[in-house]
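Run: sequence + calcium ion -> complex structure.
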Amino acid sequence: MPDRIPVYLDCDTGVDDSLALAYLLASPAVELVGVGTVSGNTAAAQAARNTLDLLALAGRDGIPVAVGAHDHLDHPYDGGAPHVHGDNGIGGVVLPRADAEPDPRTAAQLLVDLSHTYAGRLHVLAIGPLTNLAHALAADPSLPDRVAAVTVMGGAALVPGNISAVAEANVYNDPQAAAALLAADWDVTLAPLDVTLEHTLSEEQRRMLLADERPFVRALGSILDHYFDFYLPLYGQRMSALHDPLAAVLAAGAFTPTRAPRVPVVVDTGTGPGRGQTIADLRGQRLGPRDHDGVRTRVVLALDAPVAEHLVEVILAG
Ligand code: BDR
Ligand code: CA
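>> structure
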C-alpha cells in the first residue's frame, strides 16, 4: 500500500465535522496526525472537548488535539450555531468524557510543528473558520513550503451563501483569515457550497450508522439526528448536506472532481452586504479560456461520485 497521507485537521466540531473526523480515522489512505480546533459551530474549547471525546470513543486517543483561536481576526466569537449543531456542537449528544486533555500548544503551533515533522507531505484539511491557519501563516510565512496541499470546506462560487445572501459560514466567520489563506503560495482545493450541498446523507444511511455495534459509530448516528431536523425544510425530507465529509473525501484522494477549474479567488473582507463572499473568477467557464497560469487554487464546482455511499462504507469498514 502507498504511504498514507499525513493529515492535519482544523475543525469546529460540529456535526458534519464529526463525520469528517470519523472518515479520516477509518480511511486507509489517511493518517490523521493532529487536530486543531477553532470557534465556529461551537467554541474552540468545546470543539476540542468534542474531538477528544470522539477520538477516545473510537479508541484513537493518541492523536494530539490542540485548542486554537477562540476569537477571529477582526471580531470576537459570536456564540456559534446551536440551532444547527446543538448546544454542545454535537447535536446535544453527551459522550463519555475522555481522560485525555488538549495538547498544550496552540493549534497554529501544532500545525507548524507537524509541517516540520511531515515536511513536503503534510496535507492540511480545514473545515471550520480559517483563523488558525491565518495565525500559522503569520507566525511562520515559510509554512506553505512544507505543506503538500490544503483542502478547505468553504465559500460559495456560483450559488447563494448559507449565512448571508452571498457568504458561506466558514468564510463569513473570518473573512480576513480566508483571504490570507487564499493569498498564500500553496495548492488549495476549495470545496464550496456549490458541491457540498449537492451531496447528502439519507435517513437510511444514518440508520446504518445507528445500527452498528461500535459505540463510536452509533454515536455518529445520534449526533446527526438534530442536524437532520435542521435540514428538513431545505431538502423536504430527513437528510443532511455533507459539507465537511466531502472535503475530507477529497483530501483523501478518494475521487477526482468532475469540474474544478484553477482560478483566482478573493474574499470580500469589508463590512457591507458582500462580507465573506468568495469571488472566484469563473469568466472562463462562460466566455472562453482565460490565462490563469501560476494560480494554485482550484474551486470544486462538480463532483459526480457516490460520496455518501463511500463515506458510510469506509466508516462502517473502519
Ligand atoms: C460549514 O459551516 C459549518 O457549520 C459546517 O461544519 C461546515 O464546515 C458549512 O457552511
Ligand atoms: Ca465545520
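>> summary
Residues 11-12, 14, 16-17, 40-41, 127-128, 244 surround calcium ion (ligand 2) (CB under 6 Å). The domain at 5-317 is CATH 3.90.245.10 (Inosine-uridine Nucleoside N-ribohydrolase; Chain A).
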